[in-house]
Structure formats: C-alpha cells, structure tokens
Design a protein that fits this description.
Alpha-Beta Plaits; two-stranded antiparallel sheet; 202 residues; single chain; 6 strands; alpha+beta; 2 domains
Length: 202
C-alpha cells in the first residue's frame, strides 16, 4: 500500500469512528477542584477602628459613623467583602478620609468599635507607598498631585521632583490614591494591622 493510500485509509477509519463512537464524559465523573477556605479582602476601616476581629464583633452596622462623616468618606462595605458586607469602610478611589481633627465618626460610634486614645496623634488607618514604575513624576513627567493634597504635613516628601511616603507619618487616609492622575494608579494602600493590645480598657 502506498503512503498516500495508507493515509486515506487511516483518515477514513478515523472519520467513521468519530461519527459512530463519540464518547461523552459524564459531568459527574469529572473531579471538582479542591475547595479552598475563603480569604477576606483587606478592608480600610474608618479612623480608630479596633483590630479587625474585634471590630467585626463590636460593630453593629448601625451606620452612625457613616452619617457623621462630613465628607461622605465612610461607606457600607459591598458584597465583595463577604462577611464584612454592610460594615463601615473607607474606599479611597471613591472618597478618601480627610482626617478630621475632631474625628466625628469616632464620637458617633456607640459600641466603641472606633476609639481614639486620649493624647495620641491622628489614628492610623493604613500605610501608602508610591509605586515608582506607575508614578508620573518618577517617570519624568511633572506631577505633584499627591504631595500637594496630602492632609498630613510631611507625610509625602518630594526629592528631585519625585514623591515618597514617610511611613512614620502616613495615616493611610487614601487622599494620595484618590488624587493620583496616573493611568495606572501609582499609590499602593495597605490597611494597618492594628494591635489588639491597643484597645482601651475600662
């Protein structure tokens, strides 16, 4: 049998089998992917929030802190936050915290899920950092949006036209992230990991 005849013979056999003996795999026999425990998304809480587990236990979702915020910066967390849905959160892309000196959100919180230690400085919500590869100023374009709008003096320093965040002063309010004009936002904002021991007693 020539090579051409052999190819035609094999091809014909394949077509006959594919038309008459198609085998479907039952869906029930396909193993499901292993389940993984859900992970909560990092969430930026209002100023003075308790450590996350304690906050979730104390917060009643009453919405008083949301009503008290004069800038509309505190919003109910959306469904993507799963168990935290409806609890107060700050979403800087929509509206950052303006770090009010009198912290009306803390005053309004009846269950004390938000608190402020007497004599302490501004409550720390998180920490921001400038991602140089996305930052217009770091890439040679003149831009000073974050340093001009930051509400905490000295938290964003500018050297040779390039901004950087002083972690010792940053409160994580998110203003810099909100005003960043870069096509790919250059500000990374990470919620703080609050120390349970910092909760006031009595």
């Amino acid at each position: 049998m020539s090579n051409g005849s052999r190819r035609d013979f094999l091809r014909g056999g394949f077509l006959r089998r594919s038309k008459t003996s198609t085998v479907e795999t039952p869906a029930s026999s396909i193993p499901a992917p292993p389940s993984r425990p859900g992970r909560l998304l990092p969430i930026l809480r209002p100023p003075g929030a308790l450590p996350e587990a304690e906050f979730m236990s104390a917060c009643t979702r009453c919405g008083e802190c949301i009503k008290a915020c004069p800038h509309g910066a505190i919003r109910p967390a959306g469904s993507r936050f799963r168990e935290a849905t409806g609890t107060p959160a700050v979403l800087p892309f929509d509206a950052p915290c303006r770090m009010c000196a009198d912290t009306p959100c803390i005053t309004a919180c009846g269950p004390a899920a938000l608190f402020r230690t007497p004599g302490a400085g501004l409550p720390v919500m998180g920490h921001a950092s400038i991602q140089a590869f996305n930052c217009l100023a770091h890439q040679g374009t003149t831009c000073s949006s974050c340093s001009e709008r930051c509400p905490v003096p000295g938290a964003i320093r500018v050297n040779d036209g390039k901004p950087s965040v002083d972690a010792s002063l940053c409160t994580g309010c998110g203003v810099c992230q909100h005003v960043c004009p870069a096509p790919a936002n250059a500000v990374l904002l990470v919620p703080s990991r609050r120390d349970p021991a910092s909760r006031p007693h009595g």
